[in-house]
Amino acid sequence: MNFIDAHHHLWDLDTVEYPWLNAKGVTRFFGDPAPIQRNYLLDEFRGEASPHGFTGSVHIQVGAADAWEEAKWVQKIADTNPDWPMVQVVFCDLTQSNLTAQLDKFQALSTVRGVRQIIGRAPGEDAQTGTNDIIQSAAFLHGLKQIGERGLSFDLQLIPELMPAMGTILAKTPQTKVALCHAGSPHDRSAEGLLVYANTLQNLSILENVTCKLSGLGMFDHGWETETIKPIIDICLSQFGQNRCMFGSNFPVDMLYSNYTKLAQSYFEVVPDDMKQAVFLDVARAFYDLGRDD
């Protein structure tokens, strides 16, 4: 069986500028990025993912100084590696006045499938950046509707505290496919925290246009083990069902906490056998229109 990794990043620090990667001595909510402040290219990613059955992937924008330069670079990588099907989700500010022109530009690239604009990363960082404020914007709702009309999806990254408000917004954009990044970033892993998370997640899981990415679970649990991520995966599979859940490694960020072998084997162990084809292949392939095997 061939699998798809629905959430990973690549970067060439000599070609595209990433301010957060170039910042030295700055610890982020996901930890110290120093070990990944180096080039991470397709050959290395393929070398880690391929042994576990992965044969294609979805590249997610990752904070480049110039989103267009990043998108063009990813397109070039995809074009020069046709034996590894890869599509991409780009950054675009949905509240900008020239959104139509920006989307026209991105959609000229054959690999572009969607947009990601981060709504929330972690409570501490969000309080400093004011990232959450975007959900109060009428322009944001209009932008969500516009990308849906264009057949583009939206990768949604936020924290559980924002799910009720976001659920209200997404209910107004049923034509826009939404991928919930990192299972909604459940940052409180206590028994009580997971209960609150499960209840809050229902604000999004009840919406048929929202699909859940089982990804990035190490960012709030740096010493994770299979048994510590299992409750989150179980919650997501229970609420979204196998036909609205897909796997993503979040490499190389999650490389800070494990290697790809541990990550893949843990997910293979937790996801029931009768759900594996959907979670590791079918859902991502359909959601991101990644094509089918001949």
Look at the structure and name the CATH superfamily. Answer: Metal-dependent hydrolases
Q: Order of SSEs, N→C?
A: EHHEHEHEHHEHEHEHEHH
Q: Look at the helices and sheets and give the structural class.
A: alpha/beta
Output the strand order for the largest sheet: 1-2-3-4-5-6-7-8
The poorly predicted ranges are none
Range of helix content: 25-40%
Describe the structure.
There is one protein chain. This protein has 294 residues and is α/β, with parallel strands linked by helices. The protein has one domain (3-287): Alpha-Beta Barrel (TIM Barrel), CATH 3.20.20. It contains eleven helices and eight strands. It has helices at 19-22, 42-49, 67-79, 99-106, 123-129, 138-149, 163-170, 191-205, 226-240, 260-270, 276-287, and strands at residues 3-8, 54-60, 86-91, 112-116, 153-156, 178-180, 210-214, 245-247. The chain has an eight-stranded parallel sheet with strand order 1-2-3-4-5-6-7-8. Helix 9 links the parallel strand 7 and strand 8 (245-247). Helix 7 (163-170) packs parallel to helix 8. The radius of gyration is 18 Å and the shape is globular. The chain starts with a strand and ends in a 7-residue tail after the last helix. The model has no long low-confidence stretch (mean pLDDT 96).
